[in-house]
Amino acid sequence: MRGYTRMYWEKEVPVLKTFGLRDGLSVVELGSGPGIVTDLLLRLLPELTITSIELREEAVVQARAYLRDRGHVGVRVVRADVLETSLPDNAFDFAYARLVFRYLPDPLGAIREAVRLLKPGGTLVISDIDLDLWGLFEPPIPELKPALDAYGRMLAARRGDARIGRRLVRLLEAAGLTRTGIEAVATTSADLAEGRSMGTFLAPIGLGRLERMVQGGWLTARERDHARNGWKRFLASPSPFVLKVMLVAGATRARAD
Ligand SMILES: C[S@@+](CC[C@H](N)C(=O)[O-])C[C@H]1O[C@@H](n2cnc3c(N)ncnc32)[C@H](O)[C@@H]1O
User: Fold this and answer.
1) pTM score of the predicted model
2) Domains in the chain, number
3) Domain holding 38: CATH number?
4) Could you write out the DSSP letters of every residue in the chain?
5) Which of 109, 135, 136, 194 is deepest in the core (most CB within 10 A)?
6) Structural domain of residue 86, as residue ranges?
7) Ligand 1 nearest-atom number relative to CA 81
8) Closest ligand 1 atom, CA of 97?
């Protein structure tokens, strides 16, 4: 299981259940990537019926193989844009979008599409980050700030928003959903699975990404070097500790609309 996914998953599960996820529901997963979360959902609740939507052909192919290899023969993985899925109205009990909304140029449009897919009384849950709540490091690493700012600019240039977390509640309300709630899920270096490196916590500004940011002109070489040195200093400190936060927002489609 990949580090970034595992980091939050166990903490996310109780929140998903609070928002109404339970076995036997029909679920549409929006922006499912390579199928890791699909597998986690099915291992948790084997009677779910899942349709996964993913834009990138490569990830669709990967997800189909990943899920088949794990015996999940009933999952549909559909190549589509979450803004326009072409799936039927009123088809699902639960819609789940994990770490995808920050990339979307029209998050409200994507919520409206998810609402269209939900049965009346169905629930939409969106999990994502907000750059200003991204993480706390002890000892602090102020040298990471230029890279975080650059990541925010990069997403904004593609009409995404790395500070989507703070907007989720208002967006859900603007789409006419009710019973809106949001929880902050925290994971720390104490949760790091055995064999996983602390570097997992740098996502989405991991060391490889820093290099690509320099190549793309988003970060200077000097800023990259400062970030790396800050990270090395952090790792070499006597007892480095990280706390990272993901926001999980949920809301319900009213029964009579
Ligand atoms: C960071 S990954 C998250 C994958 C998975 N949900 C998880 O939590 O591990 C974001 C995924 O959303 C997909 N994505 C981005 N924009 C999309 C869109 N408009 N429609 C469908 N999928 C999209 C990307 O291709 C990528 O696979």
Assistant:
1) 0.95
2) 1
3) 3.40.50.150
4) --HHHHHHHHHHHHHHHHTT--TT-EEEEES-TTSHHHHHHHHH-TT-EEEEEES-HHHHHHHHHHHHHTT-TT-EEEE-BTTB--PPTT-EEEEEEES-GGG-S-HHHHHHHHHHHEEEEEEEEEEE--GGGSEEEES--GGGHHHHHHHHHHHHHTT--TTGGGGHHHHHHHTT-EEEEEEEEEEEGGGPPTT--GGGGGTTS-HHHHHHHHHTTSS-HHHHHHHHHHHHHHHHSSS-EEEEEEEEEEEE--S--
5) 135
6) 3-252
7) 20
8) 6
